[in-house]
Design a protein that fits this description.
- With 111 residues, this protein is mainly β.
- The protein has one domain: Archaeosine Trna-guanine Transglycosylase, Chain: A, domain 4.
- 0% of the residues lie in helices and 36% in strands.
- It has a 6-stranded mixed β-sheet with strand order 5-4-1-2-7-10, with no helix packed on it. Strands 8-9-11 form a 3-stranded antiparallel β-sheet, with no helix packed on it.
- The N and C termini lie far apart (48 Å).
Length: 111
Amino acid sequence: MRMKSAFQVSPDDNVATLLADADGELVAIVGGKGSTVSVTGNVKMGHKVATAPIAAGDFVIKYGMAIGQATRAIVPGDWVHLHNCASNCDERSSTLDGETGAPTDTIAAYD
């Protein structure tokens, strides 16, 4: 069986984007530095996983630039998303539900 992979845009990136769903398995990092990482849980295709340790407050680097900051420590293989990363592009991103993307900082008008 062929190993699943994730794409890293720049060698300076500390995340890579999964090219297939991965669940606790070793994936090959293509592009960037080219290595492997063990995904720590069930992460869906198109989502980011850490390729290096990222301390709380450190920048999440993708495309060779900071796209956000870790809101807590992230270990290699962890899913990097709204639950552990605040976007540099959208200040409300850290208030969105990590699974559904629904806002959690407002009250729905029709509840």
